[in-house]
User: Which sequence fits this backbone?
């Protein structure tokens, strides 16, 4: 398909880490109100390190490819390291995305952040400082409160 790198096509056709984790330590559920795509990301954490990550995405090819890549990137990372994974890093690892599809990668970053937020809330009682996007502009439904 035109405009998509080989890496994107590879992760779209054969996505890695599809499915659910039984008894996950964190779940991140996000959706894009404009396109209606939904992403759910599960993490398993051991000794402060993400040892497993899986996802279920009901969405476009770019959303599937970015979900697949973010779960690959996050495995083996500490929580602090995982929090630094931006949508840009996911896009770079995929060899780029067409500009019109960049919002799909934002969904992947936000799903990861929500899963970490869930994990932190369960383990420390305090999650990340993230807030809902009141503009509902479809760019992302969650924004880090910085
Ligand atoms: S078009 Fe909805 S996430 Fe890609």
Assistant:
């Amino acid at each position: 398909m035109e405009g998509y790198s080989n890496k994107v096509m590879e992760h779209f056709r054969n996505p890695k880490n599809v499915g659910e984790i039984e008894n996950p330590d964190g779940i991140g559920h996000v959706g894009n109100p404009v396109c209606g795509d939904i992403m759910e990301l599960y993490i398993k954490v051991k000794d402060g390190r993400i040892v497993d990550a899986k996802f279920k995405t009901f969405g476009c090819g770019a959303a599937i490819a970015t979900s697949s890549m973010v779960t690959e990137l996050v495995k083996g990372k500490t929580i602090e390291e995982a929090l630094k994974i931006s949508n840009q890093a996911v896009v770079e690892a995929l060899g780029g995305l067409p500009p019109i599809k960049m919002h799909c990668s934002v969904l992947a970053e936000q799903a990861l952040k929500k899963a970490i937020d869930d994990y932190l809330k369960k383990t420390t009682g305090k999650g990340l400082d993230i807030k809902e996007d009141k503009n509902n502009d479809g760019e992302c439904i969650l924004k880090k409160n910085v």
